[in-house]
Amino acid sequence: MSSTYTQIYIQVVFAVKGRHSLIHSDWEETLYRYITGIVKAKEQKLLAINGMPDHVHLFIGMKANCNLSELVREVKKASNGFIREQGFCRRFSWQEGFGAFSYGQSQVNDVIKYINNQKAHHRQTSFHTEYLELLKRFEIEYQKDRLFEWIE
């Protein structure tokens, strides 16, 4: 076979360190455009991006040669620097780790709607509950003490 043809759909979720609500509505769109540029520069397709002041969801159409961990590391590192350089937040940083969840072609539109509707969704469901539900739905084993840092 001379070529490889794939379409892999991954939802990525990561949080602000300490789960502090530092992403402000007046600059979140600028941040999302910046992250979109990073994903595109890595030759991946960003299908949706949205979040809340304490976390971000990305939905990516990935090529088979993409290393997801490296992509997320680059997004977090570059966007962290961008936030500081722009003066949006001087003490900003992302938490270590991320969640990644795979979907099939038939689920793409539903996932895009879900991500685009984050603000309304979180009026009814906390991020903590949402994230635990994702882990359960995808049957991902986890250590409670290794989850995102939950501020009390």
From TrEMBL:
Protein's GO biological process: DNA transposition
One Gene Ontology MF term: DNA binding
Domain Transposase IS200-like: 5-118
Domain of life: Bacteria
SUPFAM superfamilies, per database record: Transposase IS200-like
Name this polypeptide is given: IS200/IS605 family transposase
Organism placement in taxonomy: Bacteria, Pseudomonadati, Bacteroidota, Chitinophagia, Chitinophagales
